[in-house]
Amino acid sequence: MRRLLSRLPLDPYIAALLGTVLLAALLPARGTAATTVDGASTGAVALLFFLYGARLSTREAMDGLRHWRLHLTVLACTFAVFPLLGLASRGLVPYVLTPQLQTGLLFLCLVPSTIQSSIAFTSIARGNVAAAICAGSFSSIVGIVLTPLLAAALLGNNAVGFSLDSLLSVVLRLLVPFVAGQLLRRWIGGFITRHKKVLGYVDRGSILLVVYAAFSEGVVRGIWHQVTPLRLVALLGVEAVLLAVMLTFTGLGTRWLGFGREDRIAITFAGSKKSLAAGLPMATVLFGAQAGLMVLPLMLFHQLQLMVCAVLAKRYGRQSEVTAPAGLAAGAPAAAG
């Protein structure tokens, strides 16, 4: 079954996410059930960011600062170039995108970079895996603070349910658990490492719960009547262009800045990707009842980036095997997760 799933063009976890969306459409939580699901979702978000904080090694993050040019480049791509492109997408309203989908697209551009998939693709491509680990970690840390601030500055009143109270919720539900995880890492870090696989299922299960809660509330409020199949196709096309622009920008820009091949690979994958795991919980806190519609662009982009970057990583890896000495062709083992 695992081999069969690995051959499918759709990532199994994305399939689970889509199944959760379908479940929310058919059986949305209402009344007391909705209150229970909302409370469980709030707890799941706090748990997610607590585990993020407990996993991140402060020593590794500080060691990574020595490669500051690479990390600044990734941060600039993630929190400067992406948001500028998101702002430019306003010119597509209302002819290509609805205002709500454009807001979701802009939010996608404010989300931090991924960690796990960036590491995996960088490893497959024979890039600088250590740099990818640090770059993804820095992006996640910075994103906890910077993403809500950018959302406040760039989304403003366009985001239904977004307010200063939302920023306070981010602090209480995201930043506080993250800091608590960091502070307690000294005592629970070993447990986290030993049970990494099991806690990975907890991560994914928590995100599925968050997705169900967000989309279920959207179904109850009738917001999905605002989206047509034609608009979804248009959104996917816009996101394909967005990903192509960022991959081209990171590829050519890193050459112009004089980075070596391994560093260029790490920057390309870390600087062109967005984190579904971080973005979904943030959206539920920032957008409330409108979160389901707001995270739709992020979910589509996540699947698109996985498919495209998997192809690129394999191509870079084959190129490396051709140019590298035979003893080094195998390279570093691919990172899981």
Salient structural properties:
mainly alpha, disordered C terminus, 78% helix, transmembrane helix, 337 residues, Bile acid:sodium symporter, Na+/solute_symporter_sf, Na+/H+ antiporter like fold, globular
Entry summary:
By secondary structure, the chain is mostly helical. It has 14 helices and no strands.
Characterize the structure shown.
The C terminus is likely disordered. 78% of the residues lie in helices and 0% in strands. The two termini are 19 Å apart. It contains 14 helices and no strands. With 337 residues, the protein is mainly alpha-helical.
Q: Which CATH first-tier class would you pick?
A: Mainly Alpha
CA gyration radius, whole angstroms: 20 Å
Low-confidence stretches: 326-337
**Mean pLDDT over all positions:** 81
Shape: globular
Order of helices and strands: HHHHHHHHHHHHHH
Number of domain modules: 1
Q: In angstroms, what separates the terminal alpha carbons?
A: 19 Å
Number of strands: 0
CATH topology: Na+/H+ antiporter like fold
Which class best fits the helix and strand makeup? mainly alpha
- Tell me what the CATH architecture is: Up-down Bundle
The percent range for strand residues is under 5%
**Main β-sheet, in a few words?**
none
Which percent bin holds the helix content?
Answer: over 70%
Q: What is the number of helices?
A: 14
Pfam families: SBF_like
Transmembrane segments: 41-58, 70-89, 101-122, 129-155, 167-184, 205-224, 230-254, 275-300
Protein name: Bile acid:sodium symporter
Keywords: Membrane, Transmembrane, Transmembrane helix
